[in-house]
Specification:
globular; MetI-like fold
Length: about 270
């Protein structure tokens, strides 16, 4: 009886997974079937034939190596800065006892209700005042600190026993050394979660790079794919192939960090 229940459960889980993956499977199917009507009904979730012509053509048309390199530089720098500043901000809010700590944290969390689009003008004026327009820094700086990441890291630091910090103080270590050498290794799962989420956000960043980068040769991949939408909107197979190429690195990064993902999220919830 238990086997029957498990088979029934797994069957519906597989059906639900296929349903949720429907748009992705349709995009993959379109990219592998050049010359087919992509808007036919019912939609082709699974390709009836496999042809990589769309991938070959779009790779020849676009300089993917250049745009991938731009995206890698922006994403890696963005992830490093976000992890550093988020951990540095969250640590005192988690372990230090000072007046107004909870009020500061409440104000930070309350800013999460502000729509991201509302900050575009402010961020643009700030970037322009700093004199870093048309550079990678202009793309990275507005997202270098995320309130959600601060919240996640604060909860992770709260879950670390205070005895670890006290042992470092007994040995005469500075507070920065305690944070870097003792506390940071204890919150690796949460750091992996931040790294994954920030990498996905930076890799898929589309609108902001177009606003602050005048030189199209500096565009990340998501922004560069807009060329396909503009010039080859009739050839949806090219757009699908370019999109599939852009999501491969995200899948690879997720496969390497998935074992930390659930552990980091559950640690934040428990904290």
């Amino acid at each position: 009886m238990n086997i029957v229940k498990k088979l029934f459960l797994y069957f519906w889980l597989i059906v639900f997974a296929i349903f949720m993956m429907g748009p992705f499977l349709w995009l993959l199917s379109v990219s592998l079937m050049p010359g087919k009507n992509v808007f036919s009904f019912p939609p082709a979730i699974f390709p009836s034939f496999i042809d990589f012509k769309n991938y070959i053509d779009v790779w020849k048309y676009m300089d993917f190596f250049k745009y991938i390199w731009n995206t890698v530089v922006i994403s890696v720098l963005g992830v490093v800065l976000s992890i550093f500043f988020s951990c540095l901000t969250a640590y005192p809010l988690a372990v230090f006892k000072f007046k107004g700590r909870n009020a500061i944290f409440l104000v930070l969390v309350s800013t999460m209700i502000i729509p991201a689009a509302a900050g575009l003008v402010v961020n643009y004026l700030t970037i322009k005042a700093l004199g870093v327009m048309d550079t990678y820094l202009a793309v990275i700086l507005p997202s270098a600190v995320s309130v959600f990441n601060i919240f996640l890291m604060r909860q992770a630091f709260i879950g670390v026993p205070l005895e670890i910090r006290d042992s470092g103080r007994i040995d005469g270590a500075s507070e920065f050394r305690i944070w870097y050498q003792l506390m940071m290794p204890m919150v690796k799962p949460a750091i992996a979660v931040i790294g994954l989420l920030e990498f996905m956000a930076m890799w898929n960043n589309f609108l902001w790079p177009i606003i602050v980068l005048n030189d199209t040769n500096k565009y990340p991949l998501a922004s560069a794919l807009s060329f396909l939408n503009g010039q080859f909107s009739y050839n949806f197979g090219w757009i699908a192939a370019g999109t599939m190429i852009s999501v491969i690195p995200i899948i690879v990064v997720f496969l390497f960090t998935q074992k930390y993902y659930m552990e980091g999220i559950s640690g934040a919830v428990k904290g």
